[in-house]
Prior knowledge:
By secondary structure, the chain is an alpha/beta fold. The protein is built from six helices and eight strands. Helix content is 35%, strand content 18%. The strands form two sheets. The chain has a five-stranded parallel sheet with strand order 1-4-6-7-8. Helix 1 packs antiparallel against helix 2 and helix 5 packs parallel to helix 6.
Amino acid sequence: MKISGCHLAGLYPRSDRLFTTMKKYVRGAASRDELLAVVRDESKEIVMIQKEAGMTVLIEGQLLWHDHFRPFSETIPGMKPGPLTRWFDNNVFYKKPVIVGELSWNKPVTTDYLVLEVVGEEGWKVVMPEPFTFASLSDNRYYDRFEDLVIDIAGIIAKELSYLEDISRLVMVQLSGPVLVQKRLDGDSVELVRQGIEIIKKSFSGEVFLHTFFSDFSNALPWILDSGADLIGIDMT
């Protein structure tokens, strides 16, 4: 068994101050610069808390990510944000990505949603949706074959990670995959998950951390141990 160290496993929660500033920004009562100033202050605090706690890999906080998918659905050609949808069995919502055309990466997706200066030269990780989960939780109105959608999403994530690795000390990606443990996947689906991870690992030299949550981890055994991920996350709550 490999012990990877200690790091946070999700997008960091927003403070009341940040929620208030975001509401003002949406209403036009606060500027983008004012919003970013609050995000920058709180992201610095998040990094400091992790350092003081002895975390070995930092997260930036991803406070500008309204959900796991929004930076992609607001940026990638062929995809757009859809209706608010319940995030599994809890009181959190996400805008379901709507796939309306062929997906392609033609510019950085996440840099407008990250405050990378707060991590500086430290090793850090970014949290992104696992490709099979991403495709499963989207409204696909374009692709005839689900597997083609998964492969294209994996390619986009791979290119984004390669870009982030070039401009910062990104050492790990967490691929959040709650769909992988909702039920037992059939053989074709398992192979598709593996292909997505393989595509990402070809472009990204850091560690790939496949994190599962919300459901019984045993639904993914034993195949997930041979998924190609460097690390596996299990939610014990």
